[in-house]
Structure formats: structure tokens, C-alpha cells
Amino acid sequence: MMFAMPILLVIVITSVQNSTFDLVNNNKIAILISNKDTGEASTRFIKAVDKIGMFRLQMVNGNDSQQIPERMHAKDALVALVIPKNFSYDLITKAQNVATRSLQDAGVSLDTAKPAPVIVEPITLYYHPVLQQSFRQSIEGAIHSALQVVQGDEIVKNLYFSLHEKQIPASLEDDILHNDIPVTEIPVSRGGSRNIPNATQHNVPAWTIFAMFFIVISLGSSVVREKLSGSFLRLKTLPTSYMTALLSKQITYLGVTLLQAIIIFSLGIWLFPHIGLPKLSLPDDIIGLLVITLICGWCAVSFAICIGVFAQTQEQSNGFGAGSIIILAAIGGLIVPSFAMPASFNTIMKISPLHWGLEAYYGLFLEGGKLKDILANILSLLAIIALIQLITLYGLKRKNLI
Description:
Blueprint: H1 4-25, E1 29-35, H2 40-51, E2 55-60, H3 67-73, E3 79-83, H4 87-105, E4 124-127, H5 133-164, H6 170-177, H7 199-213, H8 216-229, H9 231-236, H10 242-271, H11 286-310, H12 314-332, H13 345-348, H14 353-365, H15 375-398
Helix pairs in contact: 1-7, 2-5, 4-5, 7-10, 7-14, 8-11, 8-12, 10-11, 11-12, 11-14, 11-15, 12-14, 14-15
């Protein structure tokens, strides 16, 4: 269980997240468009939506409004757009009003009469309830961008016509509206690396830590069984200290956690490329990787023994141990990224050892850092380990086990 479960977990989570990235970055979202307008502006708006590159357009008969919910319930598309009947007229009129007001404010126009306000019928955006809010906001932002392109085009045309009494040349219109400044994306790294992080770089370190801490089910139960079976009492009759037995357990299970990390990292390097997932690229500082892996494993082992010492039954050890690991993973940033958490969690997440381990791994894998760059995370983990060891020692003395 300690090996098969985390291996399966890493493969499934990475595959799901990688598919999500592909959906957002590579695949186009199917969108139904019902155009009830017959003007030119609506046609240009549809072309602007298509030009965004985010959508795969599926046109629907504008007179058949019932077709949209039926096709959305069938999940032919998760988003639908309905362009109202007077879209072109309202947009052009609004653009003329804006152009007129601009010329009046600049003192170019002699006409001082304020244009009548235009009541624009809104565009309707339907979405399937399965879409999350962040995804809907991305889609809505793209739609607004297309609208602004069409509206800006009409305003520029009206301003040019009012000033020169002729249509704007196509080349000038293109220079004004489509002369975008390019944006270069560069991931920030300490070593100057330009490797773009992917789903594998995020998930393999994160779920390796999760796998390490899940040895609480095995190690915690082992400690409880020894207490219930009388092994503690038999060990106390031997000419040695029970601390030697605890230290032996820690060394043994520390080797298990290290083996877990080696296997999962090896899968990321050699198996993932064969199943369509990005390859795991190890950090340059292998010594730093080994150090943080050993410290994370030691913390996981210390936590498991502490649970075993205080639990009265194996059921208590397994239930509380598994539940607490999931909670620590959640507040530590494994399940939900730390930057997406509310501000109130900034202090709470620091009590989770998984948070410090994850930040250290990210410092090596994603930021290209060295051992000296993650010393703060290592010291925090060592402080947590010391605290857990002291609590364990207190529990052993309180139960007269040492």
C-alpha cells in the first residue's frame, strides 16, 4: 500500500492536471452562437471571437432558441452566446455617440447638443453549471475582449469620418486597432533557467511528500500493536533502552520513505514520457534534493510514531493519522495552491510540515534554487521534527513506556 497507492495517486493526479492544462492551453472550447442580428457588426463580432483562438464556434439558428439548452444538456458545448436582434444598430449608435462626445470635448465639433443615450440590449452568455467560476470568468473576459475590438473599431471609424469626411483606410485602421505590443513570458528562477514548469514538476514532489506521510498507517499501527501485545514490557526487560527500538524504527522507515521518493521520481523520469505526460526534470542541486527528501521522510516518521504512541487502538491510529495527513496536505498547499488560499490561512499553513517540504521542493524543482536557498524551509522542518520528538517523549514517559 505504501508504494502502490502513491504511485497510482501521482500518475492519476498528474494526468488529470495535465489534461486540464491541455484543455486551457491547447484545446478549444466548444461554444454555441445564436445570432439574431442581421447587421455587419455582429458578423465582425463573431469573427473577433473566433480570432481569439480559445473557442470552437458552432452556429445555431437564431430563431430556434430551444436548441441551445437541449444541446448544452447533451454537453455538445458548455457555453452558448446569444446575440440580440438589434446588436449592430445599438453598437453603431453607441459608437457614434461616443465619437460625437469626444469631438465636442475636444472643441472640434460645433454641435453642442448632447446625443440621446442608447439602451443597449445585452448579449446573453449561457454556461453549463459544471463550469467553475474561474473558468467562466476567463470565458467572459475573452468575450469582452472581442466586444471591445468591435466597439473600438466603430468608434475609430466614426471619429475619422467626422474629421476627414471619408472612410478610414484599411491599413491605418489595422495599425490603430491591431498593433499589439508582444509579451514575452519568462518563468522566474534563481539560476537563470528558462525551463517552463509543467504538471509533472508540480505534482511529483507534492504527492511524494503526501506518500511519505501516509506511512502513519503502517508505522503508527505497528507502535500500537506493540503496546497492546506487551512487546513494550518485554523490551523493557532487556538490557537496552526502548529509545534504541524507536531509533531503529525511525531509521528503517526513513529508508522506506527514501525508497518511495526514488521510485516516484524514477517514474516521472522514465515512465511519464511513455504515457503522454511531461518528463520530470531533476534540479541541478542533487545534494539539496537528497537532504530535503531525508528531512521530509524523518518528519513523516516522527509524526507517525507520535500518533502511534498516543493512540489507544489501531483504528484510532489509522483514522486520526489518515485524516490529519489529509488536513495537513489541504492547509499545506498540496490540494489547493497556497497562493489561492485566503489571507487568513497564511499563518495556519505554516503549522503544516507538508507546506515547508513542498516549498523546499518547489524551490529546487521550479525556481532552480540551491540548498542554501531552501535553508529557511529546512530549519522550519527541523523545528517541527524537534517538537514532535519532544511530544513523543512526553507521551512515552506519561504512559510509563520508558
